[in-house]
Specification:
Chain lengths: 256, 376
């Protein structure tokens, strides 16, 4: 694993009105690793994701992706840096008036100059890559189950082969078997495509199965970063409860 | 920042050699994709792809390279000089080849038969819509009667809030528009009647037109645009987020909770709004008569009282509750028909407004025939 930093967050402050979500937050995500982000509900995991990808303008601080400052960029510059990443939103956020295939084609059409049949073929390949049948491409998002919708969302996020993948709660609301399948999919794709993955989750099993390192958010900043074993030695009460609780222990036992 | 992808193809005896150069990623591929698709690989028995000098490669590039190899239909194809990452990408692409059978393009039928088919479908749809709307009307009336018998079950909060939103809040726009329409009728009537020296008949014109038709139709049209679409959007959004399903499982009948309060509120507020429209419409007519035609208000209202029968007012008002029900019913029905997608919400809202306007005009025409036969 290379030590190049893919995402570097320094002194980040985000706020909604007078409510400060993060203050002085520092985080490094190395290239080619899966970084899990955990923390209590409402600690701003998704807000951090939104701040990095530019959906929420930070009040202070800077975010660098591959050494480029991405805070406050606009226009052409923005669409260029946006190609660094693909995002899978919590509920998939698939365009409900388009079929799955059209959803995957949408970014290709916008950013790549390809012929129509090739785009179709490529989209079908991405759909298969995310573990769906090719026939799922003709369906509308409302016709898919939760797990399939997440896979379709992943296919769309990967349409332009971004080096970084942001996943917001990829396994929330899935049954354990489907979730485990999704974890494996993320892991396999990360390996074969050498992706950097930024993964926001609540799911201890997902953390144990996929993440190289884990960052714990809380008290408006990063409480600790490290592998699961390192974090288990942390003294912070929330972290201790998280990994020491029945679910945390079961997940750890499952991996070992 | 990136090099164009290039390829050269050579035949070495039995073997075809494809040598690739430059970056093969999703942003650059457009330049070679079609050329590569039409590459003729006849006359060779195996294909070797040389990746020694390739720059960037991503899944799209690997897919294209693999597609070229698979399309050729050759039994053996090898790669040369591929990096470890390129090999894994190509392997992945190979494992994700499309299943062989799916290569049929579905052609959509066009022409005369298709036209007939679509016409038939539309007619049947129209018939079914009409029947379903009438069924819904029946269902609503039954629910409304039940509620009338047991008023304690009425959702008074929802009822009053709909009355405010759809009734009270619509007063300014109804008043404004009626006033202007009244003015326009008086103006056009006056200019035409002037030619016959019968300017004074403007009073009858404005009176009958506004009392009988314009007041109530204008109100209904405004409500169809304003309230009907709001009903569809509110209920449709609730359907989309499964709130209506939740309601049903909690033992709340969506008819009682959503439809009946709206229907009653419209039943009461549409006549009120019509009255407002009539008053302002007449006012607009009187205003123009006074300013432009020098018929002063005293003369105007005196003549209105003496020469415009009061039946006209009752004819107009009698239509108001019917139009109110049309607006409420179609709005609620279309809202309840919304499916899971944003698109269906948009479609339902459009359909709702169109159906409401259509029904209002048709019903108004039926009323006209009815009252004419009665001689009112």
């Amino acid at each position: 694993m290379s030590e190049r930093v893919a995402i570097r967050v320094r002194g980040l402050k985000t706020a909604y009105g007078s409510h400060v979500v993060h203050e002085n937050l520092d985080l490094d995500v190395c290239e080619g690793e899966i970084m899990g982000i955990i923390g209590p509900s409402g600690c701003g995991k998704s807000v951090l994701l939104r701040a990095i990808v530019g959906l929420k303008t930070p009040a202070a601080g800077e975010v660098e992706v591959f050494g480029e400052d991405v805070t406050g960029v606009e226009g052409d510059e923005l669409s260029r840096v946006q190609q660094f990443w693909g995002i899978m939103f919590q509920d998939g956020a698939l365009f409900s008036n388009l079929t799955v295939r059209e959803n995957v084609i949408a970014p290709l059409k916008e950013h790549a100059n390809l012929s129509r049949p090739f785009m179709r073929q490529l989209a079908d390949m991405k759909i298969r890559m995310s573990g769906l049948e090719t026939s799922a491409g003709d369906k509308y998002p409302s016709d898919l189950s939760g797990g399939m919708r997440k896979r379709a969302a992943l296919a769309r996020a990967m349409a332009l082969d971004p080096p970084i993948l942001f996943l917001d709660e990829p396994t929330a609301g899935l049954d354990p078997i489907t979730a485990a399948g999704f974890d494996k999919l993320v892991r396999d794709l990360q390996r074969s495509l050498h992706l950097t993955v930024f993964l926001v989750t609540h799911d201890v099993d997902t953390l144990a199965a996929t993440c190289d390192r884990i960052a714990v958010l809380g008290d408006r900043k990063v409480l600790a970063v490290g592998t699961m074993d390192e974090l288990r030695k942390e003294e912070h009460p929330w972290i201790r409860d998280y990994f020491g609780g029945p679910r945390g222990r079961a997940a750890a036992a499952g991996v070992e | 920042m990136s090099d164009d992808p290039e390829y050269t193809y050579e035949i070495e005896g039995e073997r075809g050699v494809l040598t690739l150069k430059g970056d093969w990623n999703v942003h650059t591929l457009g330049r070679v994709e079609q050329a590569l698709a039409s590459l003729d690989l006849g006359g060779v028995s195996s294909l070797e792809t040389d990746l020694t000098n390739i720059g960037q490669l991503d899944t799209a590039g690997a897919f294209l390279i693999d597609r070229t190899a698979s399309q050729s239909g050759l039994e053996s194809s090898q790669t040369k000089g591929a990096s470890q990452q390129a090999t894994s990408l190509l392997e992945q692409a190979r494992s994700l080849r499309p299943p062989p059978e799916q290569h049929g393009s579905r052609s959509e039928p066009h022409g005369f038969v298709d036209l007939l088919e679509r016409t038939g479908r539309t007619v049947m749809n129209l018939a079914n819509e009409t029947i379903d709307t009438l069924a819904f009307l029946g269902e609503t009336i039954v629910s409304m009667l039940k509620m009338f018998v047991r008023p304690t079950r009425m959702r008074w909060t929802a009822f009053v809030s709909v009355m405010e939103e759809s009734g009270l809040d619509a007063v300014p726009i109804v008043a404004f528009l009626s006033f202007f329409v009244g003015m326009v009728i008086a103006f056009i009537g006056a200019t035409t009647l002037e030619a016959f020296g019968a300017t004074i008949f403007t009073v009858e014109l404005v009176g009958i037109a506004v009392l009988r038709e314009f007041g109530v139709v204008l109100t209904a049209v405004i409500l169809a645009g304003r309230t009907n679409s709001a009903f569809t959007a509110q209920i449709g959004a609730m359907r989309m987020r499964q709130e209506v399903d939740a309601m049903t499982t909690l033992g709340l009948d969506p008819m009682d909770v959503l439809v009946v309060p709206r229907a009653y509120a419209m039943l009461i507020m549409t006549p009120v709004l019509t009255l407002v429209a009539v008053l302002f419409g007449i006012g607009g007519g009187a205003f123009v008569s006074w300013l432009a035609l020098e018929i002063n208000p005293t003369v105007f209202f005196g003549r209105l009282r003496d020469f415009v029968p009061i039946e006209n007012f009752w004819v107009g008002m009698s239509k108001a509750p019917v139009f109110g029900m049309i607006v409420a019913l179609i709005g609620c029905r279309q809202g309840l028909l919304v499916g899971g997608s944003v698109q269906s919400l948009g479609q339902s809202t459009t359909r709702s407004v169109v159906q409401a306007l259509f029904s209002i005009i048709v019903v108004d025409a039926l009323f006209a025939v009815f009252y004419m036969e009665l001689g009112i």
